[in-house]
Write a structure and sequence with these properties.
- It is a single chain.
- The chain is α/β, with parallel strands linked by helices and 384 residues long.
- It has two domains: 253 residues, Alpha/Beta hydrolase fold, catalytic domain (Rossmann fold, 3-Layer(aba) Sandwich); 125 residues, Serine Threonine Protein Phosphatase 5, Tetratricopeptide repeat (Alpha Horseshoe), CATH 1.25.40.
- The protein is built from 15 helices and eight strands.
- A hairpin with a 4-residue loop joins strand 1 and strand 2.
Length: 384
């Protein structure tokens, strides 16, 4: 596996995102090989210490490609974090049905179903974690039978997955009531996405609707939950619509500050604009296990809110964040200059604009801009 992964990293560095490696793992519990499709994120070969969330797609033979397409598009806009995508493939429908076998009287995995359940948690995940840099945040996705089957991990006290993409799940006995009951007991952040369609299979749709009703009635304080019913879609055609909806729902906190977020959540605040920015990135780390640098454009959004609301003292707080995020850039000195300039300490403002000239340009902050700011202030400083 390690040799294959190294070859894939080399291919990714040469050709960019989109390369897929085929791999296999022998399962002692299933007594056979299971076949995998693996897609590593674009930066995997560039940062040897960075770990990535895992997205395991059951029914990888047909879910892998639409998920990969969604990720590729989102990476371009930096809307979703990079993840390691693994597709677990089924060779036949018979194999799929056997491995998702459930006892009709207990509603729990039995026979080959029990072995498949243990294979994923006890063999496949340890295998992937040993050979790939996987972060604590793990997503599982399934459709139909596998979507129902993956919910069994919620029956465990410590589920191996944090997030579930349940696409038109075929649920065994009482699962539509057990899932909300289990989710209500967890003290850590969980994510659950559920999808159906107006043209879905009736026996499946009825239970999905019941599940949604139970989820909305439950006290799910730690659960990020969403249900979509797609109009004009069937049991199968809902899949390409649901995948991006699920991923954008799970990773909404990761996305850059949008114009809607700015208008509806930030600029309407009376104060605490810098605190909002800190909390946004703290939530990314706490909920998703992803530690990331604050985007320059998010700094600009908070800067705009400060100016619009004349909360100029917050520039000093913003400067502390910018120095940590971009220590070699002129961003810190620019923010401190704005702080002093708006508090009528023009000499200190001029000093920070001068300091900025010695540092790296970033975004729209250029040496030419700093010189212009200095020229504007010099006459006013002399008058004082």
């Amino acid at each position: 596996m390690k040799k294959i992964i190294l070859l894939l990293v080399l291919a990714l560095s040469l050709n960019g995102f989109g390369q897929v490696i085929k791999d296999s793992i022998f399962s002692n519990r299933l007594d056979k090989y299971r076949y995998l499709s693996i897609s590593l994120p674009p930066s995997y070969g560039k940062d040897a210490k960075r770990a990535y969330p895992l997205l395991l797609a059951l029914d990888g033979d047909y879910l892998f490609d639409p998920i990969q397409g969604t990720l590729k598009y989102a990476y371009y806009w930096d809307d979703l974090p990079e993840v390691i995508l693994v597709g677990l493939n089924h060779t036949t429908d018979t194999e799929r049905d056997e491995e998702c076998k459930v006892d009709e009287t207990t509603g729990l995995p039995e026979g080959m179903g029990e072995s498949f359940f243990e294979f994923i948690g006890g063999e496949l995940l340890p295998y992937l974690q040993k050979n790939l840099r996987i972060a604590p945040f793990k997503i599982v996705a399934g459709h139909d039978v596998t979507a129902g089957f993956m919910n069994f991990y919620l029956y465990k006290d410590n589920p191996v997955f944090n997030a579930y993409i349940s696409l038109s799940p075929a649920m065994p006995l009482e699962m539509e009531t057990r899932i909300p009951e289990r989710l209500a007991t967890f003290q850590t952040n969980m994510f659950y996405y559920l999808a159906s369609a107006d043209g879905d299979i009736k026996s499946i749709k009825d239970k999905v609707v019941t599940l949604d009703t139970q989820m909305k009635a439950a006290n799910l304080t730690k659960v990020n939950y969403r249900y979509d019913e797609f109009k004009g879609c069937s049991h199968y055609s809902l899949v390409p619509f649901a995948i991006p909806s699920a991923l954008y729902q799970f990773f909404s906190v990761y996305q850059p500050i949008s114009s809607n977020e700015f208008q509806e959540k930030i600029v309407v605040l009376q104060s605490g604009y810098v605190e909002y920015l800190k909390n946004k990135y703290d939530m990314v780390e706490k909920a998703l296990g992803i530690k990331m640098n604050i985007r320059f454009n998010d700094f600009k959004a908070i800067e705009a809110a400060i100016i619009k609301n004349k909360a100029f003292n917050e520039f000093e707080q913003l400067a502390q964040l910018s120095r940590k995020a971009y220590p070699r850039s002129m961003l810190f000195d620019y923010h401190m200059a704005r702080f002093y300039e708006n508090n009528d300490d023009l000499r200190m403002a001029l000093k920070h604009y001068q300091n900025a000239l010695q540092l790296q340009e970033i975004g729209d902050l250029t040496k030419e801009m700093m010189l212009e700011k200095m020229e504007e202030l010099k006459p006013q400083v002399k008058k004082k």
